[in-house]
Amino acid sequence: MSDPMVIVGAGQAGLQLAESLRAEGWQGPIRLIGAETHAPYHRPPLSKAWLLGEAVEAQITIRGPEFFARKGLELETGTRVVAIDRAARTITFADGRVEVWAGLALTTGAAARRLSMPGAELAGVLTLRDLDDASRLHGRLVPGARLVVIGAGFIGLEVAAAAVKREVEVTVIEAASRPMARVVSEPISAFYTDLHARNGVRIVTDAAVTGLIGDAMGHVRSVATSAGEFPADLVLVGVGAVARDDLAAAAGLACDRGIVVDACARTSDPAIVAAGDCTVRRRVDGSLVRLESVQNAVEQAKSAAAALMGRDRPFEATPWFWSDQYGVKLQMVGTSAGHDHMRLRGDPGEGRFSIFYWRDGRLIGVDSVDRAQDHLAARKILDRGLDLAPEAVADPAVDLGAFARG
Question: Is residue 346 included in any domain, yes or no?
Fold first, then answer.
């Protein structure tokens, strides 16, 4: 029997990579090794349906045991890999086992960024990155509890939307001047600020957290900020994520706030690939981009599987993302950063609209609120590099879907 293809990390990217290896024609063993005790699962529901009690583990599990058996995939959960020997082509487990590999893929994901300030280790201060985190948080969202969310990004706002539905008193603290400032434009931020206010969530901006204050029992009781002190029975820290690249770095692979890969998901060692939230991709111009999304995990994993089979399958599609808050879907493709012109399509007053962004006469991104047809058309337009005039966007009679199809 041939040596196995080994995938370290059993999340969305790792599972997709295993499936793609079979699709690419690999007939030998495939080992999928995960540090978590759960089979691969969908993460987006964790900050929404899971917190609302509307999902159980079986519903978010991506593939059942029969799939692994049918595809001949070996899944080992609750297992940590602690070292990679590139020369010997082996990995070492925390329990001391050593295994060889024919090809190695790293899909180790990312960890929640933690605060480094007084009180950060108090009881009741939580993060949300995996299923166990979500279960802990779900159990503490009880009516009347006071939740302070630090960070008005996607995770923070999605948790706020779920928590207030469970009759929790929610305050969101954001250091920037508006919510989701890194990823959306001011009109989108304003719409979501109003949406949260109408649902009873208080968002405090321009407020830097200076410390977390505990009671005599070591449990958090308030959050100190530059805008004052906010009482809290529970604190969620939602200030981003850090790529889990320590295993790769210790093995001598190039890392820069993530495992550096090319468009085909190859690392600095051509025998090793990486995909998903643990990576940072080097563009043709030499710059680095790090994306955290389902699309990136899935497509990069397909590229990585092809690379292990000696084929090039570059992933260069326009990135897209989404967020669900109060049943309102925000879908983003491309970027609004650096735009010099924008056009509105639809009516924000009705809660269904899109904003299109141009820079130097070229469309660079589109944000859509409950207008899926605009989002789908925009993805095709941006991927194909079509020249879309602002006047066409503003005219509701123009069929963007037909334009995208050419």
Answer: yes
